[in-house]
């Protein structure tokens, strides 16, 4: 009897494991579709320009996508809670200018980086307080921060580009904490895995989805809605600042307009990755794949030789398609 019982228990465990695998795969079906689309896009471009599939070009894509990936992960949290963050591009630019200015004033790389991250902390806190305490609309609040931070990026250095003075600052982006894995890739992987785990497995992470689905219901359940929203805006701005640090570390120069187009791209990456602008849905993996999709489109347009001015139109079309899919999928669930 004991052998029979053991065999029955083992069989049940195997069945449970098998049933869980398809469920996990189904939960990432949107991400799988985006990954497949990226592969198709790379192969299609590779048919015209074989160099598109070279290891060197793939490394270039990852390098170019890293700041956008990190910024998109922050924007994801805001979108999941039902908000929007239009300020990330300006925070990105201001971070680079403040970091470069701090180094020009004699600060070392670590101190200058802390000053740059302080830009994100202050900006995110202002956004969070105005949204949660004052009760202003996220669109209005972050539009104001976008304008102010963008203006300050010009004011602090009179609009001049600023070289990075610390000789070893390039290591932040291109160094290797783990051999054979450049830091920009390592940071993206760590942030994606941590955020995905928190959102999927940790109670606090599930609160972000609950707030985005229905803030009223979440409040009735005892979820600290205001603190969750505040945290989302702070993390979004901090990650935008960190993305700015990675960029100036790579090019060793800070520009006041460096993040001008990144706000649209970050929101596009999140939406393309499966997050709903109505809140309550989205994943870190999807945001990363959305950022990679946008970068692959830009890379493909450049390699094929299409006028670069078409990049915005292609990105806009991708956003429209993603929003329409989200719209009709939500309609079918009602």
Give an account of the 3D structure.
The protein is globular. Helix 3 packs parallel to helix 8, helix 4 crosses helix 12 (262-272) and helix 8 packs across helix 9. It has a two-stranded antiparallel ribbon. With 334 residues, it is mainly alpha-helical. The protein has helices spanning 2-27, 29-48, 55-80, 88-104, 109-134, 138-155, 171-174, 183-201, 203-213, 215-220, 225-251, 262-272, 284-304, 310-333; strands spanning 162-163, 253-254. Helix content is 77%, strand content 1%.
Compact description:
The chain is an all-alpha fold.
Order of helices and strands: HHHHHHEHHHHHEHHH
Basic shape:
globular
Strands of the largest sheet, in order across it? 1-2
Main beta sheet strand tally, sense and closure:
2 strands, antiparallel
Question: What's the end-to-end separation, in Å?
Answer: 50 Å
Q: How many beta strands in the DSSP annotation?
A: 2
- Provide a count of the helices: 14
Helix content: over 70%
Mean pLDDT, to the nearest integer, reads 86
Low-confidence stretches: 17-21
The SS-based structural class is mainly alpha
Percentage of residues in strands: under 5%
Radius of gyration: 22 Å
Secondary structure layout plus pairing:
Layout: H1 2-27, H2 29-48, H3 55-80, H4 88-104, H5 109-134, H6 138-155, E1 162-163, H7 171-174, H8 183-201, H9 203-213, H10 215-220, H11 225-251, E2 253-254, H12 262-272, H13 284-304, H14 310-333
Antiparallel strand pairs: 1-2
């Amino acid at each position: 009897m004991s052998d029979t019982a053991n065999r029955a228990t083992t069989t049940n465990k195997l069945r449970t494991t098998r049933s869980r695998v398809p469920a996990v795969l189904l939960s990432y079906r949107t991400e799988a579709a985006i990954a497949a689309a990226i592969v198709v896009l790379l192969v299609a471009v590779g048919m015209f320009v074989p160099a598109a599939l070279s290891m060197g070009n793939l490394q270039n894509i990852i390098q170019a996508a890293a700041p956008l990936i990190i910024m998109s992960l922050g924007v994801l949290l805001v979108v999941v809670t039902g908000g929007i963050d239009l300020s990330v591009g300006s925070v990105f630019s201001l971070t680079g200018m403040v970091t470069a200015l701090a180094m020009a004033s004699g600060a070392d790389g670590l101190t200058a980086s802390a000053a740059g991250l302080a830009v994100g902390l202050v900006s995110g806190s202002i956004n969070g307080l105005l949204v949660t305490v004052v009760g202003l609309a996220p669109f209005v609040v972050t539009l104001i921060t976008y304008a102010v931070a963008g203006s300050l990026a010009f004011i602090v250095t009179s609009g001049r580009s600023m070289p990075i003075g610390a000789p070893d600052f390039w290591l932040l982006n291109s160094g290797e904490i783990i051999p054979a894995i450049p830091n920009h890739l390592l940071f993206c992987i760590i942030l994606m895995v941590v955020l995905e785990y928190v959102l999927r497995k940790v109670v606090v992470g599930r609160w972000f989805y609950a707030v985005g689905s229905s803030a009223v219901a979440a409040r009735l359940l005892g979820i600290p809605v205001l603190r969750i929203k505040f945290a989302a805006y702070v993390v979004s701005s901090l990650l935008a600042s960190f993305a700015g640090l990675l960029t100036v570390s790579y090019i060793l120069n800070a520009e006041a307009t460096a993040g001008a187009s990144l706000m649209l791209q970050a929101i596009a990456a999140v939406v393309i990755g499966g997050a709903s602008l109505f809140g309550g849905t989205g994943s870190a993996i999807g945001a990363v794949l959305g950022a990679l999709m946008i970068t692959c489109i830009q890379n493909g347009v450049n390699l094929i030789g299409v006028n670069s001015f078409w990049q915005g139109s292609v990105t806009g079309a991708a956003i429209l398609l993603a929003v329409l899919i989200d719209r009709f999928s939500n309609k079918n669930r009602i």
